[in-house]
Write a structure and sequence with these properties.
This protein is α/β, with parallel strands linked by helices. The chain is built from 16 helices and 21 strands. The protein starts with a strand and ends in a 5-residue tail after the last helix. Bound molecules: adenosine-5'-diphosphate and magnesium ion. The site of adenosine-5'-diphosphate has 20 residues, from helix 4, helix 10 and helix 12.
């Protein structure tokens, strides 16, 4: 972290500052178990109970903030202001974390890069990521999530991104936003926040977003069919993908360390942002081989007797369900395709029909066995015409019992549902435990 003196911390973050073992801070944490010497421990929520522990662990100081979000934002804003790094922010209805991970991997061989860990994308995770900027950091790759209007704008006010990536617009958090137009409006706050001369990376075919792309003092890089960066071909083999793209008029062939078509799409957005950072397109292959996706996103786990499980239970929405089912079809080859799908949360009034649509997508993907879990998941069953074996279970526990009966040697199994469903319990129960 770009160091700040305690006096500077006091100026940008209001609250009670308890001194520990230092005059300046060289890191910020909200987890007392992760305190390193020189850190500022910020007590968020029940964190106040761990202030003594943090100081004993070597924290330079502890802050008991008046408003934790405001304090973290104040410190992060200060660090960002002192950094000469180029900042990229990634938002979108789905694929934020994966695109962020791919972009970070592309940048690392060429620039000292700090990227958000996992899915750190809110009023806590974003400032904590900015507080990892070092004096010599050249690129920061941030993720921005939102559940309502104004939230991206607030995160941008702290991060001041130079490049903004919008991965996709879709029916996510509809319960709170009401309509897809509103989702587009909320994501477009990132475009509005760019400085003159900044670059917005946006999908080439996204009519909902177009009304918000009116600024003439920034550049737009479009990805996807017909865009500045487009996919020419995709071939997966042995957990790797050979991807040919046309990027700003030149052909590139890249080998990526993932094997899902949807991540090839994400790579297009990442390549556009990489180019916006001034990094050499001709050398993008160096980082492509080292992409490390965050956990629970299409992670492959062996099953007993030669089966394979795709653990994609980090989250689910209509866009990501459709993509994951297509991936199941491709990955399974001639093995049985088993889809274990839990409820999709926060879809508002249209929830039932979105679930039916995903059921239909399972049918189109040639799913052989559909196991739907949770009250809303009944909609999958209704939509899944033509799927040979369809079962429904009210809970994860009942779902696990059903799965044990359905599984056959060699099956390829996708497990996916909203975070709140906790489907990872199923993965843990059926996967081969590594020796
Ligand atoms: N380009 C894409 N289009 C549709 N679904 C996608 C795409 N990329 C990833 N996904 C699906 O979305 C899931 C979540 O991806 P992630 O990158 O964690 O998104 P977010 O950070 O926006 O929640 C993935 O595991 C995959 O199932
Ligand atoms: Mg995420």
């Amino acid at each position: 972290m770009i160091p700040l003196s305690l006096e500077e911390v006091g100026r940008v973050a209001s609250g009670e500052l308890r001194r520990g073992s230092g005059e300046e801070i060289t890191g910020v944490t909200i987890d007392s178990r992760r305190v390193e010497p020189g850190d500022l421990f910020v007590a968020v929520g029940r964190g106040v109970e761990f202030v003594d522990e943090a100081l004993a662990a070597g924290a330079a100081a502890a802050l008991l903030p008046v408003d934790a979000f405001a304090a973290l934002a104040g410190i992060a804003r200060e660090v960002r202001g002192r950094s000469s790094a180029k900042v990229v922010a990634v938002t979108g209805s789905t694929a934020k974390t994966s695109t962020k991970d791919i972009l970070a991997a592309l940048c690392r061989p060429h620039a000292r890069t700090v990227a958000a860990e996992g899915s750190q994308n809110n009023e806590i995770g974003l400032p904590l990521t900015l507080c990892r900027l070092e004096p010599d950091t050249e690129v920061a790759v941030l993720e921005m999530g939102m559940r309502g209007l104004g939230q991206i704008a607030e995160l941008c006010e702290v991060a001041r991104p130079d490049v903004g990536v919008i991965t996709s617009i879709g029916p996510v958090h509809l319960e709170l936003l009401g309509s897809i137009e509103r989702v587009a409006q909320a994501k477009a706050e990132l475009v509005a926040a760019l400085p003159p001369g900044g670059v917005a990376v946006v999908p080439a075919a996204q009519p909902d977003l177009e009304p918000f792309l009116t600024r003439e003092d920034i550049e737009y890089y479009r990805f996807g069919e017909g865009g500045d960066v487009a996919l020419s071909s995709y071939a997966a083999q042995d957990g790797r993908a050979r991807v040919k793209v046309s990027a700003f008029g030149r052909p590139l062939t890249l080998e990526f360390s993932f094997s899902s078509r949807y991540n090839a799409t994400n790579a297009l957005a990442a390549l556009a942002a990489y180019h916006a950072l001034g990094l050499p397109l001709g050398k993008a292959g160096r980082g492509a081989r080292h992409v490390q996706l965050s956990k629970l996103r299409g992670e492959e786990v062996p099953l007993p007797e030669g089966g394979l499980l795709i653990n994609d239970c980090y989250n689910a929405n209509p866009l990501s369900m459709a993509a994951a089912l297509e991936h199941l079809a491709e990955r399974a080859g001639d093995h049985r395709r088993v889809a274990v799908l839990g409820d999709m949360a926060e879809l508002g009034a249209g929830a039932a029909s979105y679930h039916r649509e995903v059921g239909a997508a399972a049918s189109r993907a040639g799913v052989d066995v559909l196991l739907a879990i949770g009250p809303l998941a009944r909609g999958y069953v209704e939509g899944a015409r033509g799927v040979p074996v369809v079962r429904w279970a009210p809970s994860v526990e009942a779902g696990l019992a059903a799965l044990r009966q359905l599984l056959q040697p060699g099956d390829c199994v996708l497990v996916k549902g909203s975070r709140s469903m906790g489907l990872e319990a199923i993965v843990e129960a059926v996967a081969v435990v590594p020796a």
